[in-house]
Specification:
The complex is a heterodimer of chains A (361) and B (335). Chain A has a domain of 167 residues: P-loop containing nucleotide triphosphate hydrolases (Rossmann fold). Chain A is 33% helix and 21% strand. Chain A has 13 helices and 12 strands. In chain A, helix 3 crosses helix 4 and helix 9 packs antiparallel against helix 13. The N terminus and C terminus of chain A are likely disordered. Chain B folds into 2 domains: 80 residues; 223 residues, MetI-like fold (Orthogonal Bundle). Chain B has 12 helices and no strands. The longest helix of chain B is centred in the middle third of the chain and has 38 residues. Chain B is globular. Classes of the chains: A alpha/beta (361), B mainly alpha (335). Chains A and B meet through helix 2 and helix 3 of A and helix 9 and helix 10 of B. Chain B: InterPro entries: MetI-like, MetI-like_sf. Chain B: Keywords: Membrane, Transmembrane, Transmembrane helix, Transport. Chain B: This is ABC transporter permease.
Chain lengths: 361, 335
Amino acid sequence: MSTHETSQTASTEVPDVADPILEIRDAEVYFDMDRGVSRVLDNVSVDIERGEVLGIVGESGSGKSMLASALLDAVVDPGILSGQITYHPGDGSSVDVLGLEKEQLRQLRWEDISMVFQGAMSSFNPTMKVGGHFEETLEAHDYDVDAGMERARELLSDLYLEPERVLDSFPHELSGGMQQRALIALSVVLEPNVLVMDEPTAALDLLMQRSILSLLEDLKEKYDLTLIFITHDLPLIAELADRLAVMYAFELIEIGTSDEILGDAAHPYTRSLLNATPNLDAPLSEMQAIEGSAPDPVNVPSGCSYHPRCPLADEECVSEDPEFRPTFTENHQAACFHWQDSAEVIPFNIERSDTSEVDDE
Amino acid sequence: MNWFIKRIGQGLFTIFAVASLTFVLIRTMPGSPAQQLAADIRQNQPSLSARQINVMVEQRIGVDPDQPMHEAYMNYMLNLAQGNLGESVNYQEPVADIILRSLPWTAFVMSVSLLFVFIFGIGLGAIMAYREGSKFDVGSSIIAIFLSSVPYYVAAVVMIYVLALELSLFPLSGRYPRGVEPGFTLEFFTGALHHAVLPAASFIVTTWGGFALGMRGNSIQVLGNDYIRVAKLRGLSDRRIALRYVGRNAILPMWTSFLITVGFMFGASIILEEIFTYRGIGYYMFDSIENRDYPVMMGTFLVITVSVVIAVLVADITYGKLDPRVESGGGDESY
């Protein structure tokens, strides 16, 4: 065991948002394993604003999917989720997600907070027609099936699918992109307020990724969705997201608007991550991999978990875990003692002004 | 449709090929009905001369056992094509009659066995998968592995000893109680069921384990699929997930092996019915081998062949209906 147990749980200071739809405080997920406790989500606190698109970025195994599952209290067994997740439906009330009874939780999922998983190909029952999935979901939640199916058809045509053909097909009769779009339609058929997307485009080709992203933007406008988009593909989400949150070693390490993160990333990890991202504008030789490897969830380094790989690390980083602190602006926060120096030590290998312009659209 | 005809054609060819092979195998077995009969007569009436015995044999059998094999084969196949299975040497009655008389009994025991094997195997396997790693799962797995390693005839002998001889719970042999007239009466039906329990139980006890372990494995695999997790999050009832999601997808791969078990059971009925003196198709087959009764041997063997071919054909044709991913029209049966 590391000394990580001692990390402070009081750090509840998160960037303010005007009208939070979800408030996550000290969310923690751990698994008891033979070789120790595996902490796969470590004291994550963040507010999600109504109607925003929040991109959550991080490398594989950084806890992104755990955070997504936690929002629906759907962490896989035998993982144990603790902390506080509050959902504000918008009528002034608030719901303590982790304190819900089984039946209330069943209703909250899909009706209020819905989710699209990675790998749409495996999200449908292979022996049931796509339409059957819509019908059984509506029935399970006591919705009017006829009206619901009408909505399903509209959703499918919004996603540029032929509703009748898709509903009458078995999953294997659809292409990957079609399945993914059908899954998105299925996830919003009960008109949820929040849609959590866990790498929804991971298995698709680049063109399909782009087109699904633009479809999502339209869908979000039309149905007033709050989108939480989880991906390892930073440039992809930067165009869609209002804000970006970066995860490393099961913690949030930086959060800010997309422009702020792309233009003035404060955390050394974010800067290195951006430098490591392939980009058409940059020659391959300029790409810089991050030395070392991501930490083991059973044995996360003490202090700042990034210190073994960080060029700025000093004794303070080894002994103390940095809290979130405001950086260039009040709401652009990073968990780093030396964020002021990061730009100097880790300069960007390309200018990202082009991307920023796209964001402003 | 084209595929359908092709598939049936393949089935018919299989039957033809097996019939030919069986014919050759049976004829090349040492000993013939004539020799068998001659030996019998010699034993019973040692005073007769070889010449007298030969005359008697020819009278009794009515067929010429010395006919060359290719001629006999042509004759047999031509008769077979006309639906004539020939006449039993031993019983002096048409083979078709013997089959018609005995097949329903074998089919009866088999249906009961299959029904219970399916229910026990699939049901227990699914429960084991849901409780993977529990004491119930571990215990059932051990029992299932143990019982499927026991040969059915050993199980039969043990059951005869314990349940029929020692405890006298079930009859030792026969198909229905002595003195009861076969017919649509309750007495006959319950009697027949009572007599079928031990033969069926020998099958069930030694076969369910394989199905349970198969179902367990399939279910665990299905349970690990993303679509189960998505279905849970969508708020579907546990019942619906268990039946429509886990059950349906886990049973599918077992369907083919289930139907092939039908063929296996016909084969097993030979020894089992001999043990229980249960006059089904297997009993007559065993009996015909002992008596070198060629026509009965051929006839009963053909029944087994035809039933296996039909079972596999049914499996092939229905699989496409059960699993939408497999189209019946697809040329290759790659499952």
